[in-house]
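WARN retry 2 of 3 for item q-0093 after timeout on previous attempt; input resubmitted unchanged.
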Amino acid sequence: MKKKFSTEAKVGVFVIVAIALLAYLTIDVSQLGWTPGGTYKIYTVMENAEGVSKKTPVQVAGIPVGTVSAITLTPDRKAKVEIELRRDIKLGDDVTAEVRTRGVLGDTYIEIFPGSPDAPPIEAGGVVGRVKQPADYQQLVRDLSVLTSDMKEITAAMKTYTVSEHSYTAEILKNMQVLTANLARFSTNNAANMEAVVANMRALTDQLRSFSATSTPDIEIALKRIAEITDKVNSGQGSFGKLVNDPQTIEKTNEILDTVNDLTSGIKRIETEINYHMEYLGSTKDVKNYVGLRFQPRPDKFFLFEVVHDPNPSPSDKTQITTVTTAGGATSTITAETQDFNKVRFSAQLGKKLYDFTLRGGLIESTGGFGVDYTKGPVNLQLSAFDFSADRPHLKFLSQLNLTRSLFLVAGLDDFISREHGLDWFFGAGVRFTDEDIKSLLGTASLAK
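OK item q-0093 returned
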């Protein structure tokens, strides 16, 4: 007689199979199989353990080797992470731990980078001393948000200055249109004068031709006399001939020429630069203009003269005291306080270069001051301090990016420690012309004539 399983037996077998499958899936999903040799624990201390929690996977070369078993806070407010590794995983004491993320969901895991194979092994309870801090993505997102806002303001300002009806581009096009109209009117109104000039030039050449034809004999006689004089000078006849052929005269002349060459070579070594740049002030929406002249007699020394036009300068207080005498002999004093707004200012500085740094000082925007510059490749950073008569000195930080030899961009902060107003920021652009550029421009202009 064939035996049949009861309903209770079938349910029991089903439960046992389900438990076995659940245990297998749990081990498989955790990516850490059962290890007969057991596990051991090591520790690491991190400044920021964001995303790390208990059971966070630990990998070596992308292979799961353990999990995070606990996280505690140290007395100095750092995260102490307890890592449980398989007993068969041997690591040196010079390994490096780093928190990473993977996948579109950003799953967090700890990657351990093995060090030297000759390093002594890390024992149970050891501490991983080298930790790479993870990137703070939230701070990065905040910085990108601020940068995007600033870029929107910059593009809006650039659009105002290049696209609007009152922009510089529109003004330039209007001026070009007026210039071409004036040139066309000038050429039309002076056509008769141009023809008269050509006719006069033709008559002058005819007169020169007739003069040379009639004066040929006289010219030949003059040339013969000049040849006779030069023969006498070469032979040493006469005072001038003796002077020219005397060796001492030649030596003295050479000494004078060497002295003149030394003087003129020093002048030629002076490099000259003319520069202009404008700064758009973010707080006042004004444009500040700078025109500079730079003389550099040596590679490590320079003189800088600059004219600054500030449309919204800081006022300077002036006190005027007036003494009034009445008919009775009594006197009284009247004190008046005024404010002077000086829009045009001057700078005259002496600079000395030391490796990548430059020290300069003198008159900065009509007040005494000094500055330090750092130059590396196309980037130039400048920090200036001046106007020490106020409660706090006027500090200005400027960064300059050289796009080409003649074109550059500027940006920075102006008077950023003042108590009278908020943070002033600016950006702008400029051009510079060296003496070689000026010579090239003058040569092109002469060829065009």
